[in-house]
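DM between two lab members

TW: hey, do you still have the Crp/Fnr family transcriptional regulator entry open?
JB: yeah, one sec
JB: this one, 194 aa:
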Amino acid sequence: MTSSLILDNLAKHIHLTKEEQDIFISYLQSKTIKRKQFLLTYGDICKHSIFVTAGCLRGYTVDKGGIEHVLSFAPPDWWIADMYSLLSQKPGILNIDALEDTDVLLLSKANQEKLYLQIPKFEHFFRIITENSLVASQQRLIDGLSLTAEERYNNFCKRYPTLIDHLPQKQIASYIGITPEFFSRMRANAARKK
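TW: and the structure you got?
JB:
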């Protein structure tokens, strides 16, 4: 199990003793998800916080017309979950699948609750993660209502700099809320302006 990446991620917000690190690591389950395999589908109850150590996951919904709407990507060193379902333990609204073969560490909701009791600083860590997720979701909503497609693409590039040349254009287009065709024209126009 690759634990150094997740421990570095935790260290951004909390300091753990070696004993606390060992307790935390003992609660994790490692898993490999093959490309196009689902970790969570619409209607499932989200039972884990998911940390990506290699590869890339995406969280998305599908509308009644069958169009996918990407809400988030999770490259290495990112957490992902259906927050509504994880917190409420009700059926979820997100699909989470692998865009490529992906290695993850899973922390079950039950083990997360145990951590809160054993090592209270984990409540602080996950509060920060949840608050950051809420802020990002709110900003994304505001951006979708008030920014041009080009501005939303620039924000995508800032948020996910490692994914710009890594993801298929249709995934990026879905994330910023435009068609792949419009995305191609937009990038071509930007290239001509340079």
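TW: got it. Strands lie at 28-33, 38-40, 48-54, 57-62, 68-74, 79-80, 95-98, 102-108. The radius of gyration is 18 Å.
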